[in-house]
Amino acid sequence: MYLRSGKTKGRCPDCHEFWATSQTGNRCSYCFKGTNNLIPWRDASFQHELCQWVQHELDKTEPGLRKVVEGLYRFGSKVGSKELFESANDFCVRSDVKLSSEFAKELCSTINFEMSSQKPNVHQILPHVIDWWNMRTWCTSAIKCYYTRFDDPLDDVITKVPPPPPQCPQV
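The structure assignment produced for this chain is given below.
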């Protein structure tokens, strides 16, 4: 990019994400110092560790209980029963059952991302999603605002395992 001062500035040729400067050998400061590891979110080993942590948290739930909770949610979404969703939500709260974002995506698409309190709604599912950062790829902007820290850069939000919990409204 050509600046008014006559200097040229462009993206870093290594990471293509940050701006390069002549003081850092026409690379961004992260690539110039070789400090990409300062941002754990971008590190493959960190991503692997995060996935393992998510799987470990999901595996903590007894398989029979998980089957009951998921069955209540699935059947409740098929028949449109708010009561079944409330029962599943109660199970999740009392037994600390966590859900995956893929399961939440399946349910939310079945109930058409309903947010009304008269019907089964996303507020009975999404507070229990353990890998909330994965919801950013499929959720609505309202859900992003409620449950995924909207558009905060994940580089800044998730810096260690376990990650911080999602923002959850007080329902």
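Interim note for the steering committee: Residues 39 and 156 are 8 Å apart (CA to CA). The chain has a mean pLDDT of 82.
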